[in-house]
Amino acid sequence: MLIPGRCHCGNISLVLDWRDSTPEIPARACGCSFCTRHGGVWTSDPDAKLTVTTGDPLLVSRYTFETRTATFHVCTRCGCVPVVTSEIGNRVYAVVNVNMLENVDMSRIRRASTRFDGESTASRLERRQRNWIADVVFT
User: Fold this and answer.
1) Which pLDDT band holds residue 115 (cuts at 50, 70, 90)?
2) How many CA atoms lie within 13 A of 51 on its CB side?
3) Domain span at residue 48?
4) Domain count of the fold of the chain
């Protein structure tokens, strides 16, 4: 199933190719201060594919903090954060903010709260390699 999404103004758009056999879309509401303030509720599936398209690259800010292992792609026009990436071993992994998805039955989204406080950098990167989307294309 192809699920489109975008930031509020449409400068950052995405297409998430989600497995049709998955009845629910898991979503993790991160409890860190950045995600809480920006409405970050993230989904990923290692079998999914993601294509991200940027209208004006000059209107995209890339923000990293704490461990500097994840990059938040922030639209500077509308302030939305539709995608986060992590480069691990020359490969880009990503999670998508479910609040940016369009034309998806919201009853399929299963939200849960999560915190990653105290997680080592190595454990964090291993978790991302296991769970995040590994087929990511930026156009």
Assistant:
1) confident
2) 7
3) 2-138
4) 1
Q: Is the pLDDT of residue 70 over 80?
A: yes
Measured CA to CA in angstroms, residue 9 lies from 35, 61, 78, 88, 121 at distances of 19, 15, 6, 30, 34
CATH number of residue 87's parent domain? 2.170.150.70
For residues 45 and 135, give the distance between their C-alpha atoms in angstroms, rounded to a whole number.
Answer: 10
Mean pLDDT of 107-122: 87
**Calpha distance 133→47 (Å, rounded):** 7
Per-residue burial over 103-115, b if 16 or more Cβ lie within 10 Å, else e, is: ebeeebbeeeeee
Q: Of 23 and 96, which is predicted with more confidence?
A: 96
